[in-house]
Amino acid sequence: MTLRIRTIARMTGIREATLRAWERRYGFPQPLRSEGNNYRVYSRDEVEAVRRVARLIQEEGLSVSEAIALVRSSPPRELPEAERLGERFWAAVVTLDGDEVTRVLDDAQTVMDMEAYCDQFLLPLLREMGARLDIAREHLASAVIRQRLRQVYDGLPTVVSGPRALLACPEGDHHEGGLLLLGIHLKRKGWRVTLLGSDTPAMALQGACAQVRPDVVALSFVRSRSVGEFTPVLEEALRACSPFPVVVGGLGAREHLKAIFSLGAQYAESSEELVAIWNQVRNAQNRP
Q: Which residue numbers delimit the B12-binding domain (predicted)?
């Protein structure tokens, strides 16, 4: 599959005029010409090469010529395994090549252990796609990765004893990738996990808490909200989950730590922090 220069400019953040200037001055990129109308068309490899150059310029401070030279001297096949697979993933998503996306994820799962596959490969892809992709491509990519995380989660054994966690995204938050990853980590630590998933209204939280009586409720806020929007959502969730302890996480919660603590919730960046908070609560409850 090939793409036109307008699409490449939108997907990489490099203006069409800049791409044409690079082509004239540095011979990079090297698009083909479509038959008949002689339009520039770019392959999947060219798209990722442009993206790598842009990243080197923006993040490493290299000049255009230095970045192009580095990309030319270090093709994707010579990159570390996870990075090489990541480049293949982005290239496939850009061209909406679902079959290649599946092959990339299959290859990654084959060469990585479960922890590396989830934490060092799938999670970084989820975090980056909002900045890398337009809406259509982000939907494709996020759906595939959530499906893979769900497969890993469902494939883990379920224990019959141990602490229980109730996991949910609050109402209005549809990004459950981080929640699935938390569920995977907790199941591997011997926890019983009840996963409600995305966009969970307070009434559903209340019913689930009454049914399973969790040791801890974990809420994942990913969508960015103003404090005026965040606070009432969390307040309603805390009322619904009372008297069970609530731990909040996710990118959408990190900017509202003051509100989280003032309302009586806790904040955790990882499953290890969540478990540590639960241990503190348990120890406090057991003190005479």
A: 162-288
